[in-house]
Amino acid sequence: MSQGGAAAPEAAKPQDQGWAWMVLLAAVLLQGLTLGFPSCIGVFFTDLQHEFQASNSETSWFPSIMVAVLHGGGPLCSILVKRFGCRFAVMLGGLLSGVGMVSSSFCKSISQLYLTAGLITGLGSCFSFQAGVTVLGYYFVRWRTLANAMASTGVSLGFTLWPLLSQYLLDEMGWRNTFLIFGGILLNCCVCGAIMRPVQLASGSPPQSPKTAEEPGRRAEGALLSNGASSPHPELQQQTRRTACLQVLQKYLAFDIFCQNKGYQIYTIGVTWMMMGFALPHVYLVPYAIQNGVEERRAALLISVIGFINIFIRPLTGLLSGHRVFTGRRIYLFSLAVLLCGLSNFICVISAEFNVLIIYCVILSIAMSGVGALTFQVLMDVVEMDRFSSALGLFTILESITLLIGPPLTGLLVDITSDFHYVFYNSSFFLISAALFIGLSFCALEKKTKLKESSKVPLDKPSIYQYNETPTEPQPESQSPPAVMYITSI
């Protein structure tokens, strides 16, 4: 089904101009409302603990579920976009996000908050964000790279504004009324979705023909029906069902690439391990500062500092990494950024004074900008572009698992020891070990490849067994944008 869903296709509109820039503005707002939103959860951490008499571990499950679902719902969003179109997915996501936060304001226990704010709001944010990124591929061809870079500034704006707004509303009217207001604010995702009208290519044909859009599972289902009509054998039907499941898994979760491509295998394992510690400062920095005597408004300002610096550093890092000097070396830049993230956590261990925490936030933000700008660029370098979408599906699913369990496990450690320093020790351990694993493994893989080349032992499939970075060029105007792509951002 084309992106327009069941509705009749509209007249062809020129891309890269006119309404496309309104769609880009809506995408900026969407990323601020969705990816930027979890940054404010730490502001409510202490109040939620007191309200529900919950431990650090129990309270941290709430933001963990939200972030994990936001990242891990990519394949589900992909299917939704393919079947109903980007506009529908964005508006459905906005509705779910709003309903989730409004319901959260009436919760009587922390476990109810897991369902409403964690699962429902997280899933809604996933639909809105990833469908909003996908629609940019239809509206922009020549300026697609610029459009995606500009849209990503919405995340940094969200990181800057959400914590400040949260602290102000929390002081004025409490967390329940604040969550109620947040539900209304997140409903603006529906307005952004309404702006994203279905678009056709300039040639007048839909971005994706119905034949091309047909899912492997649906084709296998047709085969199953035809086989079932002609043969009563249940084993044949069961075999066809297995084939359908394997086709769907291969399309959305690239296990075959994971088994064959050593570079993708190393990178996916390293990033998955890294995520165990990457989100910890966002969850625990504000309660850590408050516990050490920092005034609540100033504690909320710490997260805003991280977001504000990201606005400028992330695009700059993206442009710098695209220079030809770094061709073939982006993986090492990524490892360096992760290593800096891990080392910066020791600043919090040294002192919890506000001025020291500001220095920590500045250094952490610079390192995070590098991680955020390079994560998916490196993935594009490691995996062939015709399989990027399915490789990204497995990548986001695995990282969402560690994003889910990392903060609660660390919270349990804090509950046992009554020492918030273990948050930053844990974060440093996972980040530093992941950086060393990725950097040293790729270095060893590169040396192994050079040794094979020098000994003139040909590889049957060099792109499968070695890290082979190729510069990504903009697609020509005649080429259609990817039909479905689910993208997350860190």
What is the topological layout?
Layout: H1 19-34, H2 45-52, H3 56-72, H4 74-84, H5 86-104, H6 110-139, H7 144-186, H8 188-195, H9 210-213, H10 216-230, H11 234-252, H12 255-260, H13 262-278, H14 280-291, H15 296-321, H16 330-344, H17 346-350, H18 354-382, H19 388-417, H20 421-454, H21 462-465
Keywords: Membrane, Transmembrane, Transmembrane helix
Transmembrane segments: 21-45, 61-81, 88-106, 112-139, 146-165, 177-196, 266-287, 299-319, 331-351, 357-379, 391-410, 422-445
GO molecular function, one term: monocarboxylic acid transmembrane transporter activity
Description:
Its main location: membrane. InterPro entries: MFS, MFS_dom, MFS_trans_sf, Proton-linked_MCT. The protein is mainly α and 490 residues long. It has two domains: 16-199, MFS general substrate transporter like domains (Growth Hormone, Chain: A), CATH 1.20.1250.20; 253-454, MFS general substrate transporter like domains (Growth Hormone, Chain: A), CATH 1.20.1250.20. The protein is 75% helix and 0% strand. Helix 3 runs antiparallel to helix 19 (388-417) and helix 13 (262-278) runs antiparallel to helix 20. It is globular, with a radius of gyration of 23 Å. The two termini are 30 Å apart.
